[in-house]
Amino acid sequence: MIVVLKKGIEDSVVTKIAKRVEEMGLKAHVIVGTERTVIAAVGEKRNGEQETLESYPEVEKVVPILAPYKVASLETKLEHSVVETGSLKLGNGHLGVIAGPCSVESEEQILESAKAVKAAGATALRGGAFKPRTSPYSFQGLKEVGLQYLAAAREATGLSIVTEVMTPEHVDLVAQYSDVLQIGARNMQNYHLLQAVGEIDKPVLLKRGPSATIDEFLLAAEYILDGGNSNVILCERGIRTFEAHTRFTLPLATVPYLKERTHLPVVVDPSHGTGIASLVKPMALAGIAAGADGLIIEVHPNPAEAASDAAQTISTEAFADLMVQCRKVAGALGYKMAEAVGV
Amino acid sequence: MIVVLKKGIEDSVVTKIAKRVEEMGLKAHVIVGTERTVIAAVGEKRNGEQETLESYPEVEKVVPILAPYKVASLETKLEHSVVETGSLKLGNGHLGVIAGPCSVESEEQILESAKAVKAAGATALRGGAFKPRTSPYSFQGLKEVGLQYLAAAREATGLSIVTEVMTPEHVDLVAQYSDVLQIGARNMQNYHLLQAVGEIDKPVLLKRGPSATIDEFLLAAEYILDGGNSNVILCERGIRTFEAHTRFTLPLATVPYLKERTHLPVVVDPSHGTGIASLVKPMALAGIAAGADGLIIEVHPNPAEAASDAAQTISTEAFADLMVQCRKVAGALGYKMAEAVGV
Amino acid sequence: MIVVLKKGIEDSVVTKIAKRVEEMGLKAHVIVGTERTVIAAVGEKRNGEQETLESYPEVEKVVPILAPYKVASLETKLEHSVVETGSLKLGNGHLGVIAGPCSVESEEQILESAKAVKAAGATALRGGAFKPRTSPYSFQGLKEVGLQYLAAAREATGLSIVTEVMTPEHVDLVAQYSDVLQIGARNMQNYHLLQAVGEIDKPVLLKRGPSATIDEFLLAAEYILDGGNSNVILCERGIRTFEAHTRFTLPLATVPYLKERTHLPVVVDPSHGTGIASLVKPMALAGIAAGADGLIIEVHPNPAEAASDAAQTISTEAFADLMVQCRKVAGALGYKMAEAVGV
Amino acid sequence: MIVVLKKGIEDSVVTKIAKRVEEMGLKAHVIVGTERTVIAAVGEKRNGEQETLESYPEVEKVVPILAPYKVASLETKLEHSVVETGSLKLGNGHLGVIAGPCSVESEEQILESAKAVKAAGATALRGGAFKPRTSPYSFQGLKEVGLQYLAAAREATGLSIVTEVMTPEHVDLVAQYSDVLQIGARNMQNYHLLQAVGEIDKPVLLKRGPSATIDEFLLAAEYILDGGNSNVILCERGIRTFEAHTRFTLPLATVPYLKERTHLPVVVDPSHGTGIASLVKPMALAGIAAGADGLIIEVHPNPAEAASDAAQTISTEAFADLMVQCRKVAGALGYKMAEAVGV
Asked: How deeply is C140 buried, as exposed, middle or buried, from its count of CB atoms within 10 A (0-12, 13-18, 19+)?
């Protein structure tokens, strides 16, 4: 940490703060500048020392040197990770595509969706059984029945399942049916839930919260990793900004930025990231070009009949076209992406 | 809802969409403008019709007319609510001040804090026993022992207790000790938690999420109200914006804006809202001037020793001074605020 | 500056970068930490050294220690400045209130406005003659005729005039009529305009751009100060955030934050800051409570007939009520504010 | 426009507002809903009627139906425009790449840059002669001498020149040397400047302001188009959001969103959009995949020696590599992009 003192601080105060730094188990280097004195605190830990030092009125600011996350860091594990479960393989050059409806609505709907997305080349099926909805008056999902339909769709198609879990007490239930457990954006900092999925042995897809910084995002992943589960997939799904023409702003620079700092795979969600069906394809292509390890896309046999997220859901035909284009971009850049299997 | 169609849409499509509107149980009025046709859908419900209509490629946009929340609305209950529990009374002209440390650290610390804030005029004691922390490596709170210390502080001072609950399975435990259950900003859309506190008979202080719109905030409250718990206090604690010189941006216009729309009391948190101790007093004063029903403030006998949030925590002396000034502003504007009781 | 190097950088590179620091005329202190090496560059100037050092691939980040502005700093001039011109006095305990219509529309309209705001206690008259409008199809102002009407209103009431100048070539013209030249939010970084008003001897009211950081805001003021004009009034008028229920988000913490760092007076614009007439009074009161040196408010004899900004303009009656309340809050906190003179 | 009235408004008020709508030359349709009455105002113009109607206290909100821009709209000109000047051709399937240093520093530097970017396949040269700088203490550009060096580089390489103009009085001077005039992000709403470049017959590259909405961006273009200059290139260069790990957030969904609404070509600036050299290539690739008509990129023979924007500037070697990859993606998607000419 670098502790920047205010102008004109007396030597005795500098000494007092340097002493406090040493009491924290750090080594204090006092550097007297022309206008300011700073104290470099070497041996930084990550336990709130920064806030303590900031609380001194004589301190202008405290600048951390080290990233606050550890296990997620590419400095800790030098090679990019691959997450693999059943039909889904993501990371280190392998592109995975997770596709399916926002909500599981019926056995027919999820089965039809699964077959169509598989035919187009998707490598996993998404579908919500427990649905976090902004309004208590909206459809809340089919719950366990939805999970059973998802399992039936896996049975029929071989596609791995990705579905959301919303609360710690459902983790075992969802893990019983699903191959990957999704933590939604609203729950990115639901720490009991993160701890609960940290204790299972299935991969977790962690969505970035719409106002989470990169450090907060990686620290949320760190909760899962710290629990012993090393199979975490990060998902950029858009942030909240002043832009109102799209549902969220999809900041694709997150992808290469994360990949310089963490070994965890990064996927992009152009459906939530834009909220507009016609923008899903260009942003899926852009995501791959930016270096994403995969995509997660909302697809429905009949978007206008979808029980949720209709405006951002693309049809199975549009998805097939999207996949054709994605394979072109992936091919041009040398990424490995599954071929379409056709009908 | 108003369904705005794209330019040059054929009559047959207009008819098709109007028919779909009628199938939703709404009445469709088609209005042919000079450049656009719009369909006014009368009899609006709040169940996702908007998204469905937005999914038609011929639809430019859909504009809802009604607010999506109901029970929270000032149109439903025409008078501003008062929440009262023990020493705390908030709303409709009564100002309550909730003060205390970020974390409960020891019995002595919370007791000393409680006595000091009471002496200065606070009407409730805050203190975290279960702490949501960005990093898994930070202090996570004393948990049930912390709750016991809080109860002891209430015993000693008569101050009502406000403390956070982080997960549904802890709701009963926390409700056993605390007078008001706080839902933190990170959990504003943790729906299982909202449902759980909707079923208890103690007031809930709901903090606005840092990227929540006002509609999302009121819909989160609606989850609690819909569960049968009508004692909800809304708390503005700052939003995430591009401003980096403060921890969050504290948008005080939320206060009068909410009070035009909801009967629920609104309190302001200038500690989290700024993240900087020296800004807490001016923003507390501004919150009262803006019409807030109360304040929630982080106070510690020795901020530099605080286990968490040290940089934004004020000393008990600074709090006493803040209260003197707050009483002046409240008095000037005719609000009722408790007098200091002294030591 | 603190230059943080990436992990595992070889000593030869550390030496190379330290040498480069010395070539910049700074003194380099190399501090070897447990995980990182940092170089403290002492003797910091403000000429782009930061960017140069950031361009090295081995550099993780560069953290400046000194604020980039100088003349505006409270470290340079230790006492808060007062800006005074005719009827307007602002700063260091003196509250000024600038009120009037968004646009000058006619001689009668501006005269009626001036008399009404003066009667209520305003100490300066605002009104736009040159209007920056988002759309080329909107009313662009009466231009020089508008300036003449403003001068006539000053003649009749004694109120100082505040009006906007949009382009360098108009600076002399506007300065001929107006007592204070306003730089609008859209022009906060129009450097030729800043330089032009830096050369005149009349006060400048500089509005914060809607996405300007505090450093950028103070550096814009620095352009004016650097030109030799020391009478700069800073104006917080709202920033752009994800909040869409108000026109802008009014971050009042700007006021005390600025006053800790600069000697320049700070005023608040609750009209643009909210965009909603009913929110103007509470946010004006909050601004004063937060420590603002003044207010600038849009007032029109008949808001529904206003040529621009109708939705955020309050009536002269509402303004008179606002002033009564503002005087109460100012009085409670010991600020000097002009009394109403009545009709 | 749709005028939404508050709940429980009396019939006489509805009639009064509907009458006002008719006085504006619009046709008023009153629609009585179950909870609200709305007035559809048909025949919408774009002259401030919305604000006037919003100023009525009985009005909840006013929703415009039509986009506020006209000439820029794809509804006005149904085909995507191509902008062509010398070596630069952009739009409707043609990709142009504008590359070069942030600032012109010397004749050698700009000539070396020009040759290198041409060899790699760039189709225009960028370089700043008049530099808008946040701080008055930073290098402000070589001014007219810089323009002369740019012209010499065009002479030597055949590359068209793109350079910024900052103030109306420089428009003729800059137009004398440059092929395309750039309006920087800080000046996007400098209306006198927009009007000045609207009167010349050279293309204008208009950068989006960091907090501009899409409507504001297109209305800024409309100022230029309305002046008679139809050769406007839009440039997405990043917006200001809470993200601090990049200089700006680059929202690539702007590209397909704009292309659905306007016929003007859209280019992406991954240099300013990220502020970090290592992110420029992935975001350039992503921009092309998202459908951009071109790129504008900061390239310098020796980034560490660059007089400005060093941290986001890539070397000529890195640019050559970027171009190889861009051509692959462009080829995969069927866009026309110039081949590298080699040294």
From this structure: middle
Tokens representing B274 are: 């700024």
Among B74, B66, B48, B47, CA closest to B2: B66
Q: Which of B69, B74, B245, B247 to mutate to test the interface with C (most CBs of C within 10 A)?
A: B245
**Encoded amino acid at A16, one letter:** K
Hey, are the CB atoms on C278 and B256 less than 8 Å from each other?
yes
For an interface test with C, the pick among B219, B237, B249, B324 (most C C-beta atoms closer than 10 Å) comes out as B249
Q: Which residues of A touch D331 (CB under 8 A)?
A: 332
Tell me, what CATH number does D10's domain have? 3.30.70.1140
Closest-CA distance, A86 to chain B, in angstroms, reads: 30
CA-based nearest residue to A96, from A275, A331, A265: A265
User: Do residue A57 and residue A87 come from a single domain?
Assistant: no
User: Is B70 within the bounds of a domain?
Assistant: no
Pairing type for strands D59-63 and A27-32 reads unpaired
| Dist CA C52 CA C43 (whole Å) | 16
Going from the C-alpha of D3 to that of each of B5, D7, D27, D168, the distances in angstroms are 17, 13, 12, 40
CB spacing of B52 vs A134 below 8 angstroms: no
Residues of D in contact with B244 (CB under 8 A): 244
Distance (Å, rounded) from C-alpha C112 to C-alpha C106? 10
Whether B295 and B333 share a structural domain: yes
Cross-chain residue pair C250–B251, CB shorter than 8 Å: yes
Longest dimension (CA), chain B: 78
What are the Cα distances from residue C25, in Å, to C29, C47, D136, D311, D327?
13, 12, 20, 20, 44
Specify if C213 maps to a domain: yes
In a domain, D281, yes or no: yes
Task: Give the nearest partner residue to C329 out of B252, B257, B329, using CB atoms.
Answer: B329
Across the interface, whether the CB atoms of D65 and B7 are under 8 A apart is answered no
Pairing of strands A124-126, A160-164: parallel
For C137-148, what is each residue's pLDDT tens digit? 888 999 999 999
Of the candidates C32, C63, C94, which is a domain's last residue?
Answer: C63
Same domain, C147 and C9: no
User: What is the ipTM metric for this complex?
Assistant: 0.95
DSSP character at residue A339: P
CATH assignment at residue C191:
3.20.20.70
Same domain, B42 and B142: no
All residues of chain A having their beta carbon less than 8 Å from the beta carbon of residue D213 are 242-245
Nearest to A159 by CA among A66, A81, A85: A85
Angle between helices B277-289 and C277-289 (to 10 degrees): 140
**Residue D45 maps to a domain:** yes
pLDDT tens track, chain A, 343 positions: 889 999 888 999 999 999 999 998 899 999 988 788 999 988 866 667 888 888 888 998 898 888 889 999 998 899 999 999 999 999 999 999 999 999 999 999 999 999 999 999 999 999 999 999 999 988 899 999 999 999 999 999 999 999 999 999 999 999 999 999 999 999 999 999 999 999 999 999 999 999 999 999 999 999 999 999 999 999 999 999 999 999 999 999 999 999 999 999 999 999 999 999 999 999 999 999 999 999 999 999 999 888 888 899 999 999 999 999 999 999 999 999 988 887 5
Shared domain for C134 and C18, answered yes or no, is: no
User: Which range marks the domain in which residue B294 is found?
Assistant: 83-337
Our CA-based measurement puts residue B243 at a distance from the nearest CA of chain C, in whole angstroms, of 6
Q: Which residues of C touch B (CB under 8 A)?
A: 211, 213-214, 239, 241-246, 249-253, 255-257, 260, 273-274, 276, 278-279, 282-283, 285-291, 325, 328-329, 331-333
Same domain, B163 and B47: no
